Amino acid sequence: MSGLPEKDPCAHFAHEDDYPGLDLEGAARRLGAALALRTVYDTPQTTDFAPFDALYDLICSSFPLISRHGRTERVGHSILITVSGTDPELSAALLLAHQDVVDVVPGTEELWEHDPFGGHVDEEWIWGRGALDIKEMLMGELEALEHLLSLHGRPRRTVILAFGEDEEVSSLGATALAAELERRGVHAAFSLDEGVSTFADAAPYGAPGTVVSDVCLSQKGYLDLRLTVRGEGGHSSNPFGGTSLERLCVAIARLAEHPLPPRLVGPVASTFETLAPLVSSEPVRSLVADVEGNADELARYAASVRALHPLVCTTMAVDQIGGSSPAPNVMPADATATLNLRLLPGTTVEDVLAWTSGLVGPEVEVEVLHATPAGRVDEAGGPGYDELVGVMGRYHPGTLVVPSIMCGGTDSVRYERVCGKLLRMTPFRPAHDELARGLHGVNERIARRVYAQGIRVLLALLERTVL
Ligand SMILES: [Zn+2]
Question: Distance, CA 220 to ligand 1 centroid (Å)?
Answer without folding.
Answer: 15
